[in-house]
């Protein structure tokens, strides 16, 4: 069953461009380093908030990714642009 990671976070206005510029390299690093990474979509919300919707092949793949944290440059650059975490949830894709 596909696990879905829903992470909502806020970015300072002056960091939005950096976040978006860092996104492609973060996705490349995820694809290269995160077994079980399926896909990711980033949704821009009002007030400099974003929702990152990431699909993982299994809950275990997601857990291992969380443990690795920002271990590669592209991931670290993307994470560094985030001001603070609003919410983080995990669910199972049902369709």
Automatic annotation (TrEMBL):
This is Uncharacterized protein. It comes from Kribbella steppae. InterPro entries: Dimeric_a/b-barrel. The lineage of its organism: Bacteria, Bacillati, Actinomycetota, Actinomycetes, Propionibacteriales.
